[in-house]
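Service request form, structural biology core

Requester: graduate student, group of Dr. S.
Request type: structure prediction, single chain
Budget code: on file
Notes: please return the result as structure tokens.

Sequence provided:
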Amino acid sequence: MGRGVGLRFAGGAEVLADTHFEVAQGEFVSLLGPSGCGKSTLLRIIAGLIPATSGEVTVGGIEPALSRQTYHPLAFVFQDPTLLPWRTVRDNIRLPLELQGVPYAAQMAAVEASLPLIGLTSEDARKRPRSLSGGMRMRVSLARALVTDPQILLMDEPFAALDDVLRQQLNEELVELRANKLRENKPWTCLFVTHNVAEAAFMADRIFLMRAKPGSIAETIEVPFPQPRTAELRESVEYARFVGQVSRRLREVMAR
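Core staff response, request fulfilled:
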């Protein structure tokens, strides 16, 4: 939850101002807006990586950094996969568990369980990042985030550098992963930053439209399609119409 959240840098530049939002447990929310509107900055504030200079952000009723460390395990997926080049795929995935002091056998068991979830094989797990495609490196980054079984998943334009076909495929796989967690009654809450309207419309339960200079959430849009969603949704007239409506609303927000 955020109330009046703002961020002003020491030099005087105001990145966010008077931003209000609330995200329910298990909800998937996309932050959609133009470059420079503060989407990534807001995500980092929610993660407790940087402090807001005004207003208040709480996660489960407490300050973000404390929540992350004690009550609500959180994982962050960046646009750059940030894999360690000297470690294998398997060792990159198990890194968060290693840092948490999880016993080695439990680390390896968790990694092996995570591989098929994101389309990796045992052979892939022996490779190093330099031998992987961009899409495969992003799969590894996602597996590294999910191996800790987080309650909160923050994703900062993770598929922006991928071609449209691969991007859509990973969108579908992420939707299915979320559906599996819901079936297990262990849903994670996801905030997903994107500047792609179709991507937001396909995955999210709600979309936060953001304006810039300074950034803030200008409007919230409910996505009308039931979850989980499949590739067939993109072929429907209703989906195309909704994407057009969101695009129009985003242009209007940007013009204010």
